[in-house]
Predict the structure of Carrier domain-containing protein.
Amino acid sequence: MNDENKTKLIKIFIKILKGVDKNTFDFSKDRTDFEDWDSLAHMQLVSEVESAFGITFEMDEVIEISKPEDFLLLIRKRQNG
C-alpha cells in the first residue's frame, strides 16, 4: 500500500476521531480500541474515505470494516480495479 494512501487515511481518522495521533496511529487496531469509533463515526469515516479517494463501498463492505487496515484493503481493491 502506498504511503500517500496511508497518510490520507490517517488524516481522515484524526479529523473524525478525538485522541488519534499520527505518531501512534496503528492500522491494525480494532475499532473498539478507538474511544470515539461509534456507529456515527463509522459512517463519517466511510463517507470521508469515499470522498477523499473517489470510491464507493458496498453496504456489506461497510459493515465488515472493523479496523483502519480494512479501509486500506478496500481502497487498494478499488484502485486496482
Notes: The domain at 3-79 is CATH 1.10.1200.10 (Non-ribosomal Peptide Synthetase Peptidyl Carrier Protein; Chain A). The chain has a mean pLDDT of 94. The chain has one domain: 3-79.
